[in-house]
Amino acid sequence: MVMKFQLPVPPACPEDLTQLELLSGMLHCPQCRHDYECIDGVYDLLPQVTREASSEEGRQLLHYSESFSKRPDRPWYQPLRRLAMSLSNGFLYRWAARQLEQFARGQRLILLDAACGDGILRYYLSDRHAYIGVDFSSRVITRARRYHEGTFFRADLNRLPFPNNSFDAIVSLQSLSHLVHPENALAEMARLLKPEGKIFLSVPNHQSFKYQLQGITSVHTRHFGFENVKEMVSRAFIIQQMDSRGVWIPVPRMNLHVGLKVSPHWGIAFTIVASPKN
Prior knowledge:
Elements: E1 2-4, E2 21-23, E3 26-28, E4 35-36, E5 38-39, E6 42-44, H1 48-51, H2 56-65, H3 78-88, H4 90-104, E7 110-114, H5 120-124, E8 130-135, H6 138-147, E9 151-154, E10 167-173, H7 182-192, E11 193-204, H8 209-214, H9 226-234, E12 237-249, E13 256-261, E14 269-276
Parallel strand pairs: 6-9, 7-8, 7-10, 8-9, 10-11
Antiparallel strand pairs: 1-2, 2-3, 3-4, 5-6, 11-14, 12-13, 12-14
């Protein structure tokens, strides 16, 4: 029996953006006839090119999967993971949550968390919002579904599987540096936002004191400073606010950050609020 998917934003085929149908436990595209499986409660909506090991996207996925997505996945470890994330990127989650509430003005938002990782952002958000999270890695997206309320899909930021003008807001924190072509992902996010929608974005500031001293890890395939971030985001968005935030506290074996707004020499991340040009 064929059924339409009942969600605030029904998923679309990543190949041709046709709305998917629920058929025999899988999502089926009536246009290209491709079926998308549900694995551990999460539908895998990666496009075919990303599944090919020889493609640029496939190599990127392999690199991602062999890095931090292999963190331990045990129930007793989850509170420790949340504490570690609060000490490192917690200031970004709190910033995004504050900005979203100011934008929402008490209303319910349909929200996409683009590259949601373990879904930690959901912990900081009001329950009234309709939350959808996507991530490249099957391991972290399965973990996100296990520990957080919301709807989760495995997806590629370069080919997001949703119709045009679907979301009131998109949050994407510290994700673009992992992409070979982050400008493609930004164009996709602009496509998904409603005309009056907003994106709440953060990217690492690789010119900051922390990265200049420690170096930049190999999982960051693109490096950002103030000017190239501003130029890249401005291709698809009108920037309303851009700040440098987060001071690194050099504590051994820990990523400890204090969420202050500071000069780009010190701030470890740029935070951006913008609206789509289209």
